[in-house]
Amino acid sequence: MLGHHYTQSFLETAVASVNAGCNLELSYGMRNNVFMRIPQALAMGNITLQMLRDRVRPLFYTRMRLGEFDPPAMNPYSSLDLSVVQSPEHRNLSLEAAVKSFVLLKNVRGTLPLRAQALSSQRLAVVGPFADNPRVLFGDYAPVPEPQYIYTPRRGLEMLGANVSFTAGCSEPWCKWYSRAELVRVVRAADVVLVCLGTGVDVETEAKDRSDLSLPGHQLELLQDAVQ
């Protein structure tokens, strides 16, 4: 509210928020945050102790229902480790969810799906800053798994036995430095080209907005060169 000029100070924001029914503040890592002004607002009479109790009660009720205060022995999830979380059953379920979440905007001449049995006889080019960079594949608020469980487009296709050639063209999503000659060399020798572009948390995330929807840096140029 302060950033939108609805209030003029953290104290005013705390008072307005609590009075409106807000009982959570997202200020992770901030020692100086809005709700630290609640004691001052209480002392000034802008909010009441009963109001604070009413705001806090559902928070602790939810935490108790979630078992946060139970002894560890009562928590069935405390014994889980990566052998369970990354079990074949869970990984297959993740694969199924990924496959079912794809959105196909256009499928000219029935190009997709690529048939796994035909990949060995085709030359594939996988290009772009998202083709083989595990770090940029995860969005905001997403847990990053162990490296051996991360499958980039390049790694996934190579595991299918495909004859894969690769070049990033540019090493990071901002794509400020672009190697056109290397991209053209790899693409010209391929039967099928997969161009992996995007933004990622380097470019946009919470509190990091953009003024347009254009691909960052030279990514559009990379795509146009690949198509040409």
Automatic annotation (TrEMBL):
UniProt-listed InterPro entries: BXL, GH, Glyco_hydro_3_C, Glyco_hydro_3_C_sf, Glyco_hydro_3_N_sf
UniProt keywords, alphabetically: Glycosidase, Hydrolase
SUPFAM superfamilies reported in the protein's UniProt record: (Trans)glycosidases, Beta-D-glucan exohydrolase, C-terminal domain
Pfam families: Glyco_hydro_3_C (PF01915)
GO biological process terms, semicolon-separated: arabinan catabolic process; xylan catabolic process
Top-level taxon in the UniProt lineage: Eukaryota
Any GO MF annotation of the entry: alpha-L-arabinofuranosidase activity
Keyword flag Isomerase: no
Domain Glycoside hydrolase family 3 C-terminal: 103-226
PANTHER family for the chain: FIBRONECTIN TYPE III-LIKE DOMAIN-CONTAINING PROTEIN, SUGAR HYDROLASE-RELATED
Protein name listed in UniProt: XYL2 arabinofuranosidase
Organism: Agelaius phoeniceus
Taxonomic lineage: Eukaryota, Metazoa, Chordata, Craniata, Vertebrata
